[in-house]
Amino acid sequence: MSEQYENTFVIGILGENNEQNNLIGQAFGAPGTKSDIQFYNRLDNKLQQVFCALSPINYPEKIKPFLQTLVLTDIHILVIDLEIGLNSVIGELLIGLDIFSQLHNTLPLIVITNINDKNNWKLGETKEKLKKILETTHIKNTEIFLIENKEDYESLKKKIINLEILSDDNKEEISNYTKILIDHCFPVKGIGTVILGLVKQGRLQAGQMVGLIGSEDAEKKLIIRSIQKHDRDFKEAHKGDRVGLALKGNINSHDINRDNLLITQGVFKPENEILAEIHINQFYKPKENKISSQEGIQYTAITELKSSPFKITEGEDISPGKSGKMKLKFDKKMYHDGTGLKGLIYDANKFQNKNRIIGYFKQI
Questions:
Q1: 11 has which bridge partners?
Q2: If you write DSSP's letter for every residue of 32-45 in order, what string do you get?
Q3: Which of 6, 78, 120, 209 is the most buried (most CB within 10 A)?
């Protein structure tokens, strides 16, 4: 929350057509950092709001940037190109939006773009099909917004503002710890190691000592040398802010990536093996129509921005649409704030016109 500005809106733009995603992204902000995720940022003087939008670059071929975009953002826009229509890519995106709304109370919105005189006849049919699909999910009341002209991009921004204002999630909650998700890290001459990230929990002050976790090593102590937002220096940052942080301590930029978190020291704990409640998505099609500890198959889990392969060591057989208890053993240490791990389970292979999102888990 910046000085004299009401809210920071962190938005995921998720669709098959990167050109359409980019048009929506640029409505929210100027293109910024770009790797496997494109960032758009703007301190909007007219609306007195701050926008930070993200869009995965290599999706649908690679699923991880899509899932990390879901983690980083609070509002998820599913972009449907009317020329392409509904397909297996849109199906997988919808499943991701549905699961994250259940796990993290994220806010979904569907936007239909690339509407013209030649394909306008498909609009009514597409909307009706979408509504029927949504009825099978937990996000059945998701609004469908149309972009038909330039003015609609401005209306979309106002729609996003109203969408979050209607939710209690935009209110800054009192938290007993700080958590920053790191999306990029690099060295800056004369300054040292700098990270870009999002404050997902609590507040952060310049001069504050924090812990760096996420690797297999012990928690490292670092000091926040300075805080920047919108290329300006600030003394503190709040939940929802995208920040640039200069770090002081025995650390190299090559040692920091999206597996890491900056947190209040001593709060988070690592896990390698857990007992969890597993829910298998109804649209996932496993072999033998079930997930079993006898398979010996390696799956992948994502918690915060960190992914790890894991195996099921024991537990009940679970069919699509059902839940059950299983023991999971991760290849990497996974961290949580003491309330237990929770996250999404997926197939990390390249897209082959079928859903790769398996389900989700919560530690018990």
A1: 53, 75
A2: EEESSEEEEEEEET
A3: 78
What are the structure tokens assigned to 115, written together?
């509407």
State the pairing for strand pair 298-303/342-346: antiparallel
Give a yes or no: residue 3 inside a domain.
no
β-strands 75-81, 8-15 pairing? parallel
Q: What is the enclosing helix (H) or strand (E) of 227?
A: strand 220-229
CATH of the domain at 229: 2.40.30.10
Residues 73 and 216 in one domain: no
Residue finishing a domain among 237, 263, 289: 263
Query: From CA 314, how far away is CA 77, in angstroms rounded?
Result: 37
State which residues form the domain around 222: 179-263
CA 205, 208, 214, 218: dihedral to nearest 10 degrees?
-170
Residue finishing a domain among 170, 204, 225:
170
pLDDT in tens, the chain (364 residues): 345 556 889 999 999 999 999 999 999 999 999 999 999 999 999 999 999 999 999 999 999 999 999 999 999 999 999 999 999 999 999 999 999 999 999 999 999 999 999 999 999 999 999 999 999 999 999 999 999 999 999 999 999 999 876 665 444 456 789 999 999 999 999 999 999 999 999 999 999 999 999 998 899 999 999 999 988 999 999 999 999 999 999 999 999 999 999 999 999 999 999 999 999 999 999 988 999 998 889 999 999 999 999 999 999 999 999 999 999 999 999 999 999 999 999 999 999 999 999 999 999 9
Total of domains in the chain = 3
What is the C-alpha to C-alpha distance for residues 164 and 109, in angstroms, rounded to an integer?
A: 11
Q: Which amino acid is at 240?
A: G
**242 with 306, same domain?**
no
